[in-house]
Amino acid sequence: MRSIWNGAISFGLVSIPIKLVNATESHSISFRQIHLEDGGRIRYRKVCELEEKEVRSAEIGKGYEDADGTIIPITDDDLAHLPLPTAKTIEIVAFVPADRIDPLQMDAAYYLAAGGAPAAKPYTLLREALKRSNKVAIAKFALRGRERLGMLRVVEDAIAMHGLLWPDEVRAPQGLAPDTRVTVNDKELDLADALMDTLGEIDLDDLHDEYREALEEVVAAKAAGETVPEAPEPAKGGKVLDLMAALEKSVRDAKESRGEEPAEVRRLPQRKSARATPKQAGGKKSTAATAAAKKTTASAKKTAASAKKSTATKKTASKSTASKSTASRSTASKSTASAKKTTAKKATPRKRSA
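RESULT FIELD:
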């Protein structure tokens, strides 16, 4: 890898010669501007506005435009003699825990390569010190005409440096949160947690740029004179009217996409709120309520009357049964008496005459 900057790391009284190498690369597909009529390339030419003629790169320098429009020439020699200790040095100013760095400040990433054999020992010392401390180094350095802020950390056996934005370059997120006050209940949070657990973790190495791959297919098809592949129709998304239902469906879909059994999500029973019956104006009862009350009263009266008749009937039946029983006993007594008399008569002997 080609170095883009040579200098040294200043670590107290220790100086470590290093080379700065880009840690990332872009795989984006770039396009050229063309003339639609004949397909010719559209090029930008550097023209001096005073002479109205094209100039070569060797004739182009830097200049600072003042507030009144005056151009002040700045040469490379002027920049090389800036009174900065970081002109060719990455000066470490502090060591802090990694979680102290806001990811919003992260900028371009670089690798720091040891600059020759003399740098091997101090380079390794700094790397192992960062590993053991579980901290990152905050440094200042100058690159491409301005001083920058950086963060040094260990990546495998190398030291990497992330360019950092200055704190005043990060905007505050004021006015971006919803204005409406929203309450999230525990059930919704539980479903969100279940969805997060279902999606689980992923190996970042498995992720790839699908847009670039699709674009490459289009370019290859057009180059071969073939039909350009059509994009699949996007899924129609409707309005989310029920957040709970959307979360439950998301959990089920995520499990099914992983070949797992659909998640069983049960809703908690909703509490029925007891509503007080509104009172009528002036304390009067409604006509419907009055009619219902009258019907209830009439029904109660009929029920009571039926009960009384039933009771009377039972009493009459009891008296009749008792009378019949008494009469039967009386008849039985008379029959017994008559039988006794008859028996007595038969048993008395007749007197014979002399």
